[in-house]
């Protein structure tokens, strides 16, 4: 435990309260009012979520006290603005990372990481194609890769956005593939399973997650699809005689798994295996994101608040007047 034990988490904060605690200042932006006076917008984060903070007074002093990504102790009062809570900052001080417990600030999977990794590796050992088997062994025998793979998040916000999220999402995809691969004719189950396990490998370098989850320089400049293809090519180069056509099909699964160019895929899925992977990836991401959104809604209402990205409310409970049988 650090010298400054955390007592107040963002999901505990309510309007009209005073707050004084430590958060990660994940982002800051200096802006100006209509009269030209500056004010500072800050995004505060801890393992429970994120919220906006605004400094109207002593802006120069507060702005110079910290950088984005720092741990900061914030003192202020909580107000509601346009339906969301925000902290009006009265005082802010940078805190030495050695004085905090990083586990208070980074959300993490609730599942056992070692068990998930063991289960995924066991699934990889069921791949019969000798080249694909060697490829998976090359990745999961690479200690540096595995260390990052077991810790990395799968996203910054939308789904599996926590430490261990990438491993959790990948295991889920592998299990879904096992459930459906034999349902359709003409599917190369080894190719589908290998592509499913490797489709997001670029995320081990797309994100940084020392104090908060954000995009790395490589993530912003290339994104995980390009990074993943590069990683795949390097491993394939170390496997003598790896079929060129098989490598091409695997690369296609990585570049097409977002479905359309509008959502980041250079090409849409053009093989049966790529089509299945796209829909299973979409299913797992959406179900996980919606479930997390519903669980985070603390109201007693039957419906959640409005989800801006998915453009809808979600139903949490039983209908007041169920339809007659």
Fold blueprint:
Elements: E1 18-32, E2 38-46, E3 49-55, H1 59-64, E4 70-81, E5 84-95, H2 113-124, H3 130-140, H4 143-151, H5 165-180, H6 189-198, H7 203-206, E6 207-208, E7 214-215, H8 217-221, H9 224-237, H10 244-256, H11 272-296
Helix pairs in contact: 2-5, 5-6, 5-11, 6-10, 6-11, 9-10, 10-11
Return the CATH architecture of the largest domain. Answer: Orthogonal Bundle
Strand content: 15-25%
- The name CATH uses for the topology of the largest domain is Hypothetical protein af1432
H/E element order: EEEHEEHHHHHHEEHHHH
Tertiary shape? globular
In total, the number of domains comes to: 2
Helix amount, in percent?
25-40%
State the name of the first-level CATH class of the largest domain: Mainly Alpha
Mean pLDDT: 92
Number of strands: 7
Give a structural overview.
With 325 residues, this protein is of the alpha+beta class. It has 2 domains: 10-104, Beta Barrel (OB fold (Dihydrolipoamide Acetyltransferase, E2P)), CATH 2.40.50; 113-291, Orthogonal Bundle (Hypothetical protein af1432). The protein contains 11 helices and 7 strands. Helix 10 runs parallel beside helix 11.
Please provide a brief summary of the model.
The chain is built from eleven helices and seven strands. The chain has 325 residues and is of the alpha+beta class. The model has no long low-confidence stretch (mean pLDDT 92).
């Amino acid at each position: 435990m650090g010298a400054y034990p955390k007592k107040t988490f963002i999901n505990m904060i309510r309007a009209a309260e005073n707050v004084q605690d430590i958060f990660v200042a994940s982002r800051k932006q200096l802006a100006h009012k209509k009269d030209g006076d500056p004010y500072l917008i800050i995004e505060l984060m801890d393992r429970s979520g994120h919220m906006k903070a605004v400094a109207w007074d002593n802006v120069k002093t507060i702005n110079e006290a910290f950088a984005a990504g720092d741990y900061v102790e914030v003192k202020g009062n909580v107000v509601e603005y346009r339906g969301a809570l925000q902290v009006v900052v009265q005082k802010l001080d940078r805190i030495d990372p050695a004085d905090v417990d990083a586990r208070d600030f980074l959300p993490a999977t609730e599942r056992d990481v070692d068990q998930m990794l063991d289960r995924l590796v066991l699934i990889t050992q069921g791949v019969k194609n000798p080249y694909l088997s060697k490829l998976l062994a090359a990745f999961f025998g690479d200690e540096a890769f595995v260390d990052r793979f077991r810790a990395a998040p799968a996203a910054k916000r939308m789904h599996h956005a926590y430490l261990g999220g990438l491993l959790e999402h990948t295991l889920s995809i592998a299990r879904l593939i096992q459930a459906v691969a034999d349902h359709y004719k003409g599917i190369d189950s080894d190719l589908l399973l290998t592509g499913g396990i490797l489709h997001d490998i670029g995320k081990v370098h797309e994100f940084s997650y020392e104090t908060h989850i954000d995009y790395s320089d490589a993530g912003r400049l290339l994104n995980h699809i390009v990074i993943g293809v590069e990683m795949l090519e390097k491993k394939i180069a170390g496997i003598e005689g790896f079929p060129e056509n098989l490598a091409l099909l695997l690369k296609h699964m990585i570049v097409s798994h977002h479905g359309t160019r509008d959502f980041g895929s250079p090409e849409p899925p053009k093989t049966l295996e790529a089509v299945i992977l796209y829909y299973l990836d979409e299913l797992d991401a959406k179900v996980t994101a919606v479930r997390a959104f519903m669980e985070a809604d603390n109201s007693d209402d039957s419906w959640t608040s409005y989800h801006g990205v998915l453009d809808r409310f979600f139903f949490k409970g039983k209908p007041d007047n169920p339809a007659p049988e």
